[in-house]
Amino acid sequence: MGDEEYKYQYGFSEEHPDEMYDFEKRTRKGNKTMAVLLDYLSGKGKDPTELRLLDIGCSTGFMTRLYGRYFGEVVGIDIDEGAVRYAKENNSGENIGYFVSDSMDTGFDNESFDVISCTHIYEHVPDSKRLVSEIYRLLKKGGACYFAAGNRLVPIEGHYRLPLLSVIPKPLAHLYLRILGRGTYYYESHLTYLGLKRLVSPFEICDYTLKVIEDPERYHAADMVRPGSIKQKIALTFLKVAYFISPTYIWVLKKGDG
Predict the structure, then answer these.
(1) pTM of the shown model
(2) Which residue stretches of the chain are H helix?
(3) Which of 29, 109, 184, 192 gets the highest tally of CB atoms within 10 A of its CB?
(4) How large is the average pLDDT for residues 14-36?
(5) Where is the Methyltransferase type domain (predicted)?
(6) What is the pLDDT of residue 11?
(7) β pairing state of 204-207 and 248-254
(8) Distance CA 208, CA 201 (A)
(9) Distance between CA 56 and CA 135 in Å, rounded?
(10) pLDDT band of 9, cuts 50, 70, 90
């Protein structure tokens, strides 16, 4: 991979402060993650208070602190030094630790964690294959990773809210941001549905994408899809017909027992 592509996005929290330092937004997102994880773990007969969780891309730590209410031990990692410093100062706990660390090469021992949270992180790292390989290495046998992933094939890119930004070639995306004064470099590298399937192929996928839309209250998603609304009905019909262009996928990735 050339130097042009292999770049780290060190200052994401500075580039997106309204998102990363917003307690309510981060808490809502964390509640969605926890609802899925608790549902999955209860189905496996596992008690989260006995489990160790790694939060990849913890940033300012609001979601990490929420995880700490449920899990026995929680570790948050990020390459954003400013965000990790803020997390340590504001979102710490007796069972929570934060580290500045590369998610593609964390330095933790093999099979160190029971659960991993990887929420819209894959597109930010220079090499998503290395990220997923590291997740696989870190998980214990039978362990699970909450994996929320955006689709490349969306009309409006999620981070900058610009039309077709994730679809066009990278050199044009860089220029697009510069012309609009929204940045100088487009770090994100999204994949299509098929690309994501290939990316996580070492794992067994437990798909929650439709489940969340079918029962948004249970999964703390009613702020996005109101139960019984026309939007909910359209979304369900659309995804059942054209799942490959869902804007987001919510998967729990299970590492095999063997």
Answers:
(1) 0.94
(2) 12-15, 17-20, 23-43, 62-67, 81-90, 128-138, 170-180, 193-199, 209-214, 230-241
(3) 29
(4) 93
(5) 54-147
(6) 86
(7) antiparallel
(8) 17
(9) 9
(10) confident
Q: What is the CB neighbour count within 10 angstroms for residue 132? A: 23
From CA 192, how far away is CA 122, in angstroms rounded?
Answer: 12
In what order do the strands lie in the sheet containing 73-78? 96-100, 73-78, 52-56, 113-119, 139-150, 248-254, 204-207
Given 3-state DSSP classes, what are the helix, strand and coil percentages for the chain, each rounded to the nearest 5?
40, 20, 40
Flag whether pLDDT at 1 surpasses 60: no
Please return the burial class of 217, using the count of CB atoms within 10 Å of its CB with bins 0-12, 13-18 and 19+: exposed
Distance in angstroms (rounded) separating the CA atoms of residues 103 and 77? 7
Residue showing tokens 């330095």? 107
pLDDT tens for each residue of 52-84: 999 999 999 999 999 999 999 999 999 999 999
Please report the pLDDT score of residue 6 as a whole number.
62
Q: What length does the chain have?
A: 258
Name residue 1's beta-bridge partners. none
Return the structure tokens found at 64.
């990490």
Mean pLDDT value across residues 98-121: 98
